UniProtKB/TrEMBL annotation:
It catalyses: a 3'-end 2',3'-cyclophospho-ribonucleotide-RNA + a 5'-end dephospho-ribonucleoside-RNA + GTP + H2O = a ribonucleotidyl-ribonucleotide-RNA + GMP + diphosphate + H(+); a 3'-end 3'-phospho-ribonucleotide-RNA + a 5'-end dephospho-ribonucleoside-RNA + GTP = a ribonucleotidyl-ribonucleotide-RNA + GMP + diphosphate. Binds 2 manganese ions per subunit. The active site is at H410 (gmp-histidine intermediate). Belongs to the RtcB family. This is tRNA-splicing ligase RtcB. Coiled coil: none annotated. It comes from the Bacteria. GO terms for molecular function: GTP binding; metal ion binding; RNA ligase (ATP) activity; RNA ligase (GTP) activity. Transmembrane segments: none annotated.
């Protein structure tokens, strides 16, 4: 986290929304809007993330407001939990910092027809099997190897590339954002180094806050929507949180180098060089967009292969096929991405580049991009929490379209830096503490558990309460972790 507290203005302007006025900082083209409860403001002020919201408000072509969700915390250039939309017709820019290093980091939820009583005596065996089957940790290679030609094809086609090889079924695509394929991705704009980094990592979890959890639905808040999603009390689900691994990181790193001189070249100023950006319709901007979309397709593929391995592990432990166990995908949604979307701004429909960095698309009922199976109720929104408390399933709502470019939060949001969490964990046995809570946890390193301990995060119930009250998405069901594997 950044050093120093934020002492600038946060003006309450409505239900759970606080404004940073344009008078706060020279160059702000629009205000900042931060969604949070009054109780959260003390934590939010502890770092410079609100100042980053103000910085983003200076970007050329930004529309309406620079927005942050209640899981806001400091990030590279943009805060985590940040949202902004830029209009290419008004000189709008694209910014890798507004997507993040882990392009298409996202979440996938897998349902089962198992219930708590079916798994509670198998959890240790199940978690061990998941941990020793699914590669975890930084830089780990997996069982799936792709040569450079195959890796580029995978980026061009998305999960269909591996489904055609028997690693999943076509209906998985129907329940993936954009059907797992962002149009306009060009794998040939991805560097050879990035391709090399991705060749053996597709189907691996990674490190940091990435995880695979076995969860139980412990509360249902909207029975009708839960029924439409196929969720019910005590049902067992599997949540997967991972992204585009080293390939996506390298795409971001490569683009930041090429964007370094763009402010001078295109005649604009930035308050922070980490906001590096280029006009959407510039050579630099077009190259990044093409590579970012290809990396996003890789991210969908990564979660597809992680899901398929989880299906195989469940089948082995319970002695039934994954189809017989009802292991169907509810949904897969990105929370680190930039997409060209149509939104109504001041009464006029515009196509804008919506940057979501640690923020989740939350389209309402009737939106054409919501899968047909859910169009009557709205898009499933998957919100992971921490490994000791809870995660959530929400549903998209019209309020998000009206206020936040169809966006809601993406998780709990860190309350402690990784360094502080590690220090806090000295002398403690986090795995034993979790076991006392009823959670079996396995990680590649002790530090991995200490960095991600529940105390390091805000309470996701509070974060979800804000987006529900602000009508950015609505509560459907709450899940409690039973078992987790991490890097």
């Amino acid at each position: 986290m950044s050093k120093g507290a934020f002492t600038g203005p946060l003006e309450h302007i409505g239900c759970c929304c606080h404004r940073i006025p344009t008078s706060y900082k020279a160059g702000m083209r629009v205000p900042g809007h931060i969604y949070a409860s009054d109780a959260m403001l003390e934590t939010i002020r502890k770092d410079q993330a609100p100042d980053q919201v103000a910085n983003v408000a200076t970007l050329p072509g930004i529309q309406v407001a620079s927005i942050a969700m209640p899981d806001i915390h400091w990030g590279y250039g943009f805060c985590i939990g940040g949202v902004c939309a830029t209009d290419p017709e008004e000189g709008g820019v694209i910014s890798p910092g507004g997507v993040g290093y882990d392009i298409n980091c996202g979440v996938r939820l897998l349902k089962t027809n198992l219930y708590l009583d079916d798994v509670k005596h198998h959890m240790r065996e199940l978690v061990k099997a998941l941990f020793y089957t699914i590669p975890t940790g930084a830089g780990r290679a997996g069982r799936y190897k792709f040569n450079p030609v195959e890796t580029r094809r995978l980026m061009g086609e998305g999960p269909r590339f591996v489904i055609d090889r028997g690693l999943g079924v076509a209906r998985d695509l129907d329940h993936t954002e954009a059907n797992g394929h962002i149009d306009g991705g060009d794998p040939h704009q991805v560097s050879d180094h990035a391709v090399k980094r991705g060749a053996e990592q597709c189907g691996t979890l990674g490190s940091g806050n990435h995880f695979l959890e076995v969860q139980v639905v412990d509360s249902v808040f909207d029975a009708d929507v839960a029924r439409a999603f196929g969720l019910e009390l005590n049902q067992i689900c599997v949540m997967i949180h991972s992204g585009s691994r080293g390939l996506g990181y390298q795409v971001c790193d490569d683009s930041l180098a090429s964007f370094r001189n763009c402010p001078v070249k295109y005649g604009f100023e930035l308050p922070d060089r980490q906001l590096a950006c280029a006009p959407v319709d510039s050579p630099e901007g077009r190259k990044y967009i093409a590579a970012m979309r290809a990396a996003a397709n890789y991210g969908f593929c990564n979660r597809q292969l992680l899901m398929q391995q989880a299906r195989e592990v469940f089948a082995g432990v319970f002695g039934r096929s994954w189809e017989d166990l009802g292991m169907e995908q509810l949904y897969d949604v990105a929370h680190n991405i930039a997409k060209l979307e149509e939104h109504t701004i001041e009464g006029k429909k515009k196509k804008v580049w919506v940057h979501r960095k640690g923020a989740t698309r939350a389209f309402p009922a009737g939106h054409p991009e919501v899968p047909e199976a859910f169009r009557a109720v709205g898009q499933p929104v998957i919100i992971p929490g921490d490994m000791g408390r809870a995660s959530w399933i929400l549903v998209g709502s019209q309020g998000a379209m009206d206020k936040t470019f169809g966006t809601t939060c993406h998780g709990a949001g860190r309350a402690m830096s990784r360094t502080a969490a590690l220090k806090d964990g000295v002398g403690r046995k986090i795995d034993k503490e979790l076991e006392h809570r009823g959670v079996i946890a396995m990680a590649s390193s002790r530090n991995g558990l200490a960095e991600e301990q529940p105390k390091a995060y805000k309470n996701v119930d509070d974060v979800v309460g804000v987006v529900h009250d602000a009508d950015l998405s609505r509560r459907v069901a709450r899940m409690r972790p039973l078992g987790v594997i991490k890097g």
